[in-house]
Amino acid sequence: MKSSLKLELTLPSNIKLIPLIGNLVETFVNSIKEEIGSIDFDDLAFKLDLALTEATANAIKHGNKEKEELPVKIKIEYFNNELTIDVIDYGKGLNTENLDINMKNIFDSKDSGRGIFIIKQIMDEVSHSYENGEFKFKMTKKIYKD
After folding, report:
1. Which distant-in-sequence residues (6+ apart) come within 8 Å of 19 by Cβ?
2. Cβ burial, residue 110 (10 Å; 0-12/13-18/19+)
3. Gap between the Cα atoms of 108 and 80, Å rounded
4. Exposed/middle/buried for residue 51 (C-beta within 10 Å: 0-12, 13-18, 19+)
5. What stretch of H or E contains 5?
6. pLDDT tens, 73-107?
């Protein structure tokens, strides 16, 4: 039997809530610790915390323009050795494939691009979609058991 665990959360677009998001994903990973085996739990939790907080900050700042009445939805699911995180906002979205992300531009840019760059380094798959007024940023991390 394959184990699965799912968590969904909706929060207002308030940047002050970002520190709580990291705790959320770390708690989630801790709840599947037995399922994921003897991998480096602290490293995995740290990386997922970083990816989720970056994606959520982008959704609040760039997607919803910090309008608290616009929610950000977070969905975290572990199934079949994959951890998937969806961050959904109500902005117009962005085209992450067309961002010119390279090491030189990352440090020269004053405002944007670093979060997406970091996420793409941490996660195995990153995609996005825009449908019915919702921009969904999807991140997947494959969990390789020892």
Report:
1. 53
2. exposed
3. 40
4. buried
5. strand 4-12
6. 999 999 988 999 999 999 877 655 545 455 555 55
